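Retry 2 of 3 after timeout on previous attempt. Resubmitting structure tokens to design endpoint.
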């Protein structure tokens, strides 16, 4: 579980940073607000996963054995970050939507299964993980 949480802590933080890098190119106030909220949520999720992983967010992408969907999602995030300023913001955001979907597919089931197994040990952890999964 700690390896998974470390991976997720890193990528949630990275996701927030990518959203924040896009913000200057967004002119519409409503869109800027929504993207800001996505960035804040990703930072919040990163902090929760940091605590669940033992307290440290790695400086580099963890090399743990992640599934192929998560590996593809990580590549999409990297490509999105590299294309900021080179492609229209909407195209970058479309890639980020695909990234978010892939990451959710890969880990939602695992997060829920871990949450339910932890429920016997502490309902608070289960509620936190369910909240993240629902978000």
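Retry 2 succeeded. Sequence:
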């Amino acid at each position: 579980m700690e390896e998974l949480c470390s991976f997720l802590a890193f990528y949630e933080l990275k996701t927030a940073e990518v959203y924040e890098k896009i913000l200057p190119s967004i002119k519409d106030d409503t869109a800027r607000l929504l993207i800001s909220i996505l960035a804040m949520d990703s930072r919040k999720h990163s902090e929760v996963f940091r605590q669940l992983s033992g307290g440290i967010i790695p400086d580099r992408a963890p090399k743990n054995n992640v599934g192929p969907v998560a590996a593809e999602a990580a590549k999409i995030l990297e490509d999105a970050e590299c294309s900021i300023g080179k492609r229209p913001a909407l195209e970058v955001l479309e890639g980020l939507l695909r990234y978010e979907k892939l990451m959710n597919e890969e880990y939602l089931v695992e997060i829920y299964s871990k949450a339910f197994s932890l429920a016997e040990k502490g309902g608070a952890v289960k509620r936190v993980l369910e909240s993240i999964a629902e978000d």
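Attempt log closed. The chain has five helices and no strands.
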